[in-house]
From TrEMBL:
<dbReference type="Pfam" id="PF00501">
    <property type="entry name" value="AMP-binding"/>
</dbReference>
<protein>
    <submittedName>
        <fullName>Fatty-acyl-CoA synthase</fullName>
    </submittedName>
</protein>
<dbReference type="InterPro" id="IPR042099">
    <property type="entry name" value="ANL_N_sf"/>
</dbReference>
<dbReference type="InterPro" id="IPR045851">
    <property type="entry name" value="AMP-bd_C_sf"/>
</dbReference>
<dbReference type="InterPro" id="IPR020845">
    <property type="entry name" value="AMP-binding_CS"/>
</dbReference>
<feature type="domain" description="AMP-binding enzyme C-terminal">
    <location>
        <begin position="472"/>
        <end position="548"/>
    </location>
</feature>
<dbReference type="InterPro" id="IPR000873">
    <property type="entry name" value="AMP-dep_synth/lig_dom"/>
</dbReference>
<dbReference type="GO" id="GO:0006631">
    <property type="term" value="P:fatty acid metabolic process"/>
</dbReference>
<comment type="similarity">
    <text>Belongs to the ATP-dependent AMP-binding enzyme family.</text>
</comment>
<dbReference type="InterPro" id="IPR025110">
    <property type="entry name" value="AMP-bd_C"/>
</dbReference>
<dbReference type="Pfam" id="PF13193">
    <property type="entry name" value="AMP-binding_C"/>
</dbReference>
<dbReference type="GO" id="GO:0031956">
    <property type="term" value="F:medium-chain fatty acid-CoA ligase activity"/>
</dbReference>
<feature type="domain" description="AMP-dependent synthetase/ligase">
    <location>
        <begin position="29"/>
        <end position="420"/>
    </location>
</feature>
<keyword id="KW-0436">Ligase</keyword>
Length: 565
């Protein structure tokens, strides 16, 4: 039984009376000095202690430095939720480098784009994962990568390191085990500090191409402490999740947050409702991170095969559109478990609004959480918070009265300074020049600082918790010989939150085939970007603005009428 949340927060405040600015590796070392023998990473095969992960990260850093990686250079990772990912994250920080955690669902061209745009000098990649063959992608992108790195196409990429997951390594390639073979002779890097960039996290944006969000060590650690404080982490909290650690949710709210209480993560390689419940039971997890689609699947599993989960005391379900009635079902199956939900994005480091564990149920039903209190990590000028919000008219930028609906603007030390090598996109989100970031989301704030989302200004949507930008899909579809125009819109889906519907206009003399176009997209895009439905439309039937731009909200309504009735 958990102590009251206020008591747990007081315990954290006692342990951390002032904020100490650190790099990620320094935060790990501080935790290892206090909790060295405790579990940090738990898998079904073995467990890694704080001391073991810290030592491993030293070997990784030594290998990176020996490979010529210099402070401030960029190291890309294509890895699932493996223990090696954790060692790499802290090892890259320890070497003074910047981590580029790549979405491992990316296909060949998507991977190539990130490697090129990020200026990565070294890549550590799995050979295979599920149906994805990364070696085939590398062979096509940069023949001879085993010894020649990125070649002429990726001139900054000096070396590729292989993390074998499906058999013997490719002959001639350096393996991750070889990279991290020794800790001898490592000289601590002092050229970088807490205010330097730790991660560049790629997310789709208004231009339709992925943008690298700049996040510093201090931003990440302050937000992670805020997660522990806001949800009232008790000593030794154990969190399981299948959310990928290339994303801020699993990375910040899971991995980094447990450092402050000597807790552990139980990362899963892929989501399975049954496996999630098994992990909670087997590893005595007391917390779990979900997006609504995962929550719904777990509830279905419990309906079919009920079971007791005595260790579970906390749960957060956040990051997408919640299916109707889901909170009632959660209360039914998880009576007594502290339930929270929230709102955030990579640009504000992670969740910036979260309901309190002791909030009445109506707050979960009617809001997306309160502006997060983060204790000692907060900015006194913002009332002890890292991010504050304004609500403005999306067109005039004038402030909207309290409780009114408008576009959400964010400002504070938890907000990114911009996008890597994308000055135009950075200027666009900071259009007013006063430090307020345009989120593109529509919502309202009440007198108690609870935020409620009501829609989006921008066209992007979330499928299974992953943000999707329609232009990426439209560009792929219009590359097919039968498609003249493509307009992708979201459709509400009980399981995935939202899925894509592609309206396509045929090229003269062509007849687009829906199944063929879905397969075409599946070969070129990550699964969550592949449209669920393809519908044909005549040019004359596309609703447009006076300037000829398609009115996508009307296309979305038309799709819902056609497909949902």
């Amino acid at each position: 039984m958990l102590a009251p949340v206020a008591q747990r927060q007081a315990a954290l405040e006692k342990r951390f009376p002032t904020w100490e600015r650190r790099r990620l590796d320094q935060a790990l070392d501080a935790a290892a000095a206090e909790f060295g023998d405790r579990d940090l990473v738990v898998t079904d095969e073995r467990t890694f202690s704080y001391a073991e992960i810290a030592d491993w990260s030293v070997r990784v850093a030594n290998g990176l430095v020996a490979a010529g990686v210099r402070p401030g250079e960029h190291v890309a990772i294509v890895a699932a939720n493996l223990p090696e990912f954790v060692a790499l994250k802290f090892g890259i920080a320890r070497a003074g480098a910047v981590c580029i955690p790549v979405n491992f669902l990316n296909r060949r061209d998507e991977l190539g784009y990130v490697l090129d745009q990020s200026d990565a000098v070294l890549l550590v990649t799995m050979d295979r994962f599920r149906d994805l063959d990364y070696l085939a992608a590398l062979d096509a992108l940069m023949p001879g990568w085993e010894s020649g790195g990125g070649g002429s196409r990726f001139p900054t990429l000096r070396k590729v390191v292989l993390l074998p997951t499906s058999g013997p390594p490719r002959e001639g390639a350096t393996t991750f085990a070889e990279l991290a073979a020794t800790a001898e002779g490592f000289e601590p890097v002092t050229a970088t500090g807490p205010d330097d960039t730790a991660d560049i996290l790629y997310t789709s944006g208004t231009t339709g191409t992925p943008k690298g969000v700049l996040l510093t060590h201090d931003m990440l650690l302050r937000t992670a402490y805020g997660s522990a404080f806001g949800r009232g982490f008790q000593d030794g909290r154990r969190i399981t999740f299948s959310l990928p650690m290339y994303h801020v949710y699993g990375y910040v709210e899971g991995l980094l947050a447990v450092l402050f209480v000597g807790g552990a993560i139980v990362p899963q390689l892929a989501f399975s409702p049954a496996a999630t419940l098994d992990a909670i039971s087997r590893h005595r997890c007391d917390d779990v991170l979900f997006i609504p689609t995962m929550t719904a699947a777990v509830l279905d599993e419990l309906d079919a095969r009920p079971r007791s989960l005595p260790s579970l005391t906390s749960m957060i379900s956040s990051g997408g559109v919640a299916p109707t009635g889901i909170w009632d079902r959660i209360d039914e199956h998880f009576a007594g478990v502290e339930l929270t939900t929230g709102y955030g994005m990579s640009e504000v480091t992670a969740s910036s609004t979260v309901t309190r564990p002791d909030d009445p149920p109506e707050r979960r039903l009617t809001t997306n959480g309160r502006l997060r209190d983060v204790g000692v990590a907060g900015d006194p000028a913002l009332g002890g918070r890292l991010v504050e919000y304004r609500v403005v008219d999306a067109q005039t930028r004038a402030d909207v009265p309290l409780g009114g609906v408008g576009e959400l603007l964010a400002r504070g030390p938890g907000v990114t300074s911009g996008y890597y090598r994308k000055p135009d996109e950075t200027d666009a989100v900071f259009a007013d020049g006063d430090g307020w970031l345009r989120t593109g989301d529509l919502g309202r704030l009440d007198a108690d600082d609870y935020l409620t989302l009501v829609g989006r200004v921008k066209e992007s949507y979330r499928c299974g918790g992953e943000q999707v930008m329609p232009k990426e899909i439209e560009d792929v579809l219009t590359g097919h010989p039968s498609v003249g125009q493509a307009h992708v819109v979201p459709l509400r889906d009980e399981r995935m939150g939202e899925v894509g519907v592609a309206w396509v206009v045929a090229r003269p003399g062509a007849t687009p085939d829906a199944a063929e176009l879905v397969a075409y997209c599946r070969e070129r895009l990550a699964r969550f970007k592949v449209p669920r439905h393809v519908l044909t439309i005549e040019v004359a039937d596309i609703p447009t603005t006076p300037s000829g731009r398609p009115r996508k909200f009307l296309l979305a309504e038309l799709a819902a009428q056609r497909l949902l009735g």
